[in-house]
Specification:
The chain contains 12 helices and 13 strands. By secondary structure, the protein is of the alpha/beta class. Helix 8 links the parallel strand 12 and strand 13. It starts with 7 loop residues before the first strand and ends with a helix.
Length: 354
Amino acid sequence: MGRVDEPIMLGCLSCRNRLVRSATHSFLGTPEGRMSEADFAMYETLAENGIGLIISGHCCVSPRGRANEEQLNVFDDRAVGDIARAVKLVHEAGSRLIFQLSHAGPRAIGVEDLADVTARPLKKGKKARELRGEEIGAIREEFIAAARRVKRAGADGVQLHAAHSYLLSRFLDPTFNQRTDAYGGDAANRFRLVGEIVAGIKAACGADFPVLLKINSDTKGDDAAYESDLIYMLREARRLGAELVELSGVDFLSEPRTATLYYLPRAKRLRRAVEEPLSLVGGVRSLADMEEVIASGLDMVSLSRPLICEPDLLPRLRAGQERSNCLGCNRCFVIARLHPGLRCVRQRQLTKKA
């Protein structure tokens, strides 16, 4: 597979290749916030099929920050045993496993008193108030405490979910962040909370414990200004010791099914401006796509939906399959609700044929 197959070091973490399973909510967890047997099997299958670095689905750091009831509750010590078991399976198959930490903010379920970076109206007639300063500090400590649990379980690191309109991304994006205190305004202030969490995890877990970030590479607001701000944020991430920043975007669900590498043009410009190790997720469908990302100077390349459709995609591509069979239909976000245990319409089609 060329350069994609080359090993890479992320700080002190060695990966056998440059392929990342981007964080993907599996819908397989239990209503009690634990991992299921199907979750363990999923991670083991991904590792056995050659992924170098696997990032878990988003795990909630706070009872007030749950986006889905099936999320792993990393605010609970009971998660440590689940994480340890998953890590053992993945390590035995030669891969690395990072756990993604997230807070849903105003998208949280089961919360009446919803809070956002800035007060705003929400869907279905709901409203969110502005987070108070002491609440921001408490959220920071929840991320750090969750990282301690992940480290205690033997995982290879954590990724902070600062994309896709979850709470940390709303601090970074001026479309959502109109605060007038130390956490709002210019890029330095908007990045402050993420930076404090990175620094806090490094202090609590050790400088050699990997901390990755997932960040939107664009915004629905002033996109040109946001690109300039990203340069500052990526440089600050490097200064604080973040091992890798994964670039995603705000509109991947609306991209045409045939589109590929949606965010690569911006990623190339950011690569020229910063030294922070980078990966790209969004529209990666073939070996050629993967190689194009790496040839552009990025350090790793990430896939999500194609690996829901085909967890064994890499062996298939190596054997001559031209591209992923993923339809880009985004039904993977709803089919699990309609048909528990299924994660892809292609899987259901095959089940019907059988």
